[in-house]
Fold this protein.
Amino acid sequence: MALIGVFDSGVGGLSVLDEALRQLPQYDYIYLADSANAPYGEKSSEWITARSLAICKYLDIKGCDAIVVACNTATAEAIQQIREALPIPIIGVEPGIKPAAMQSQNNIVGVLATEATLKSDKFNALLNTLPNDCQFIIQAGAGLVPLIESGEADGEETLELLAKHLEPIQDGGADTLVLGCTHYPFLRKSIRKLLGESITLIDTSDAVVRQLKRQVETLKKDRSEKNFGSVLFLSSKNEESLLLMAQNLLSADLSLHAVEARFLGEMR
Ligand code: DGL
């Protein structure tokens, strides 16, 4: 049975793990949250690359058959180096600006992502491939990740900060908003409170997991009697709080899986 590594700077990648558990519950997973170092989005490009590479090498050594870099920031800065360094399929995530441009009715799209993602060459190259009849209103979500990491996704402080970040997007008349950081799907409720029900929210977890499925199927490791695989949660900060956050944030029923949580001492 395939063992899949899912990695993020913290709890954001749980939004991708959730979709993976829904579509591919039979696989075994290691979810690695580098919460001791979150947020990545305000760190240097060199630091993000080195750390993301070290974590993916660790997951490879632990026996992962494929790795999902469930972090837009790490993907933007390091995916190429990770792919060059490791012999297994590496699946990245990137802001869904293409599907957003296709779905927008008025051709005005808001993009909320980390500063590092928005500044990256990869994101700007992607932006340049899109036709210029679509207007993008780009906004860095500074300060949001630490609030989500501390379990405050629905809190007052988060709502206030989010209101500030979304103001230019709302004033600009966007009918579509790209959630360009895997932490942000956990802000759905707060975003809906501020922007209403009519705005289209774009999150690429579904497409990322379909891509994972295609890649793992080529490995021919998905034959098993089990319907539900195991999930090992690893945290560089606090494994109990990671498990608690996972139980709160995931819509998947973790009780169907063999679950364990461990402190990631060796990667601190
Ligand atoms: N979840 C991340 C992303 O998708 C990282 C956020 C951060 O650590 O700043 O970009």
Remarks:
- Residues 108 and 218 are 38 Å apart (CA to CA).
- The domain at 3-92+205-263 is CATH 3.40.50.1860 (Rossmann fold).
